[in-house]
Amino acid sequence: MSEKTIVHLMRHGEVHNPEGILYGRLPGYRLSENGVLMAQEVAKWFADHDVTALFSSPLERALETAAPMSELFDLPVTVEERLIEAGNHFEGMTFGVGQGSLRRPAHWPFLINPVRPSWGEPYRQIAARMKAAVIAARDAARGHEAVCVSHQLPIWTLRRFAEHRRMWHHPRRRQCELASVTSLTFEGTRLVEVAYHEPAAGLVQRPTVPGA
Length: 212
Fold this sequence. Notes:
Layout: E1 4-11, H1 33-45, E2 51-56, H2 60-73, E3 78-79, H3 123-140, E4 145-150, H4 152-162, E5 181-187, E6 190-197
Parallel strand pairs: 1-4, 2-3, 2-4
Antiparallel strand pairs: 1-5, 5-6
Helix pairs in contact: 1-2, 3-4
GO molecular function, one term: phosphatase activity
Protein name: Broad specificity phosphatase PhoE
InterPro entries: His_Pase_superF_clade-1 (IPR013078), His_PPase_superfam (IPR029033), PGM_Phosphatase (IPR050275)
């Protein structure tokens, strides 16, 4: 039988963002106090798992989310650039009508093609880099488990790609909550199962901000 390897894609915890900015790849956005608790709660959930490799997006909120895992398993956090948040034209702005960025006609052309999407990094590009990151993690933890801390849109895009579903979608229908875990099980190099867990569900405060 082929050896089994599991790659867990973990979304970072809640971020301190009182202004409701679409922070994207901007530096300086760290976990809130509740986000730190989320990271600790997920680490507890992983306590009886066979994690031998730990990777993270280079952004602060992801690295902080990975920290309790690093301590628990005595593993270094390997920064993996391919796990970074998706690029977005509206980064650094609030999104919406009223006082949001959509009140300015100059931004409207970026909304014309939701399939690509026209406002940011193409879905196919996101899926390709995330797939490469997962393969690298799978190879590093062959026969064991790896954890990759990333962001909502990259994780959800890869999942849809892996399940042979179209990659364009409504942002509010993503199944990728804060501090959630999407687990990809491989037998050898073949993906055989996709599972989803919310170990920190009790700490999620509604409403959450999709795409954060």
